[in-house]
Amino acid sequence: MFFLKRQQQYDVCIVGSGAGGGMAAKQLTEAGAEVILLEAGRMWDNATDSAMFRWAYESPRRGASTPERNFGEFHAGLGGWSLPGEPYTRAPGDSFDWFRVRQLGGRTNHWGRISLRYGPDDFTARSRDGLGDDWPIGYDDIAPYYDILDRMVGIHGTNEGLRNAPDGFFQPPPKPRCYELLIKDACDELGVTCIPARRSVLTQPLNGRPACHYCGQCGRGCSIHANFSSTNVLIPPAMNTGRLRLVTDAMVREVTIDRNGLAGGVIYIDKKTGREEIVRARIVVLAASACESARLLLNSTSSLFPDGLANSSGTVGKYLTDSTGSDVAGFIPKLMDGVPHNEDGAGGMHIYTPWWLDNSTLDFPRGYHIEPWGGRGMPSYGFMGGIHRYPTGGGYGKSLKDDYRRYYGATVGFSGRGEMIPNEDSYCEIDPSTVDQWGIPVLRFHFKWSEHEYNQVKHMQETFRAIIAEMGGEVFSPMPTRESGYGILTGGRIIHEVGVTRMGNSTATSVLNSNCQAHDVKNLFVADGGPFVSQSDKNPTWTILALAMRTSEFIAAERNGGNL
Known about the structure:
This protein is α/β, with parallel strands linked by helices. It has helices at 19-30, 46-49, 125-129, 139-153, 178-190, 230-233, 235-240, 290-299, 398-407, 451-470, 541-560; strands at residues 9-15, 35-38, 79-80, 89-90, 100-101, 195-196, 244-247, 250-257, 263-270, 276-286, 324-331, 351-352, 368-374, 411-418, 427-435, 441-446, 524-526.
């Protein structure tokens, strides 16, 4: 057991500065708490660090990926599936790729800003199909926080009256691009729901932030703050309170325990000096990302918690899920020889397909949504990748350039993002023999897709190909087989991992209660994707933000009432 020496004590210590950590910092400092926020990565300011206006040819690699930036040299995601000095391992025969970011704001700097509310059915999945578990909260419990979030952050979309894709408070959506209009027509013919996308990119000014000017470089970080990131929207107001101390390059090793069995703070390694530092706090909020927070709990062992902090249930690290994913691209002759024009738009897709079918008529229990892509956006490295698969004269010089002009913009693609059923074979644990460069034990992953996910992805593939055919197009890749998993992506590749510190009413089967408060340690909270009981087919960030807001409200009330 680690007992703390006398030193400055903060009201709250938050680990992680992404969606959950940034929201907790904003809400708690504005509620009057003295907060220290620890971030394992370096400082990042989109106003000065973004490369959104730089040309690909300004890079020696023409914008290609680097070990530090897996999505491109100018990308705002400082991290990847493999970080030097920070390994993780996989159980023999299992595959899982863990994406980590090391910068202020975390993944919010580079995510796709697809901002979807979970619907009523997403909280009661077990009651509907008998699989997994229901959440201890329902849609009505979180809807007020979604409402505040819509107005605080800004999101475009339309109210459609779809029961499990709830409406919100939307700014006007950007108009569909040419290829998206064709997709919409094809979907209408096939009976596939297709509506304006819901993304946290401003189309109207909000709270001093200007509207998007359609440069299409959201992944590089928005220097004008028109799209959402923790660094753009949450950290600045927290800093403005004068009650936030921000520490970057702080690799947290463990949560400490005081003599009463409560969280006393954290120990972290200063990555610049290599020194071990101690933070004392009355309340600890873990928001380091789902698996990183689970790692901290599992590494925080003591005589009171020999199996890891807040792990009396044995479920820390268990029930790991990621979104299912599969992709198909097709060549659309109607889009050949297009008139040159700019289709950058508001970053990513301007339309999308929420789940539209009844699972009782299908051979899998949960749904997926569809994200289309294509068009004539600003060329960057690799924009014509794979053109050899399409009709082309090839060659070099003028003939090659002419072919590029003919076929550029004539490719469309579809990506599916679906719900995985939590299973006991998918979890993370501490590797008994591997540590990172700071001597901190690392995670070992176990991961399995079930037949539910394979059947779902097969349906994705069939749907994407049907839409392309309806557009008069052709897919040049064959329909994948069961042996290939129907093209399902490796677990972790969608970067939607959640679970592992799930909430629940039972102390025997969950880590947290309905307020994301640890059952075992009343002054310990989790505010990332870890508390999720199930995945849904929606991207998780909007729900992480809403849950973090709700949890912060609870912490503030308990603190003001003298209970924490």
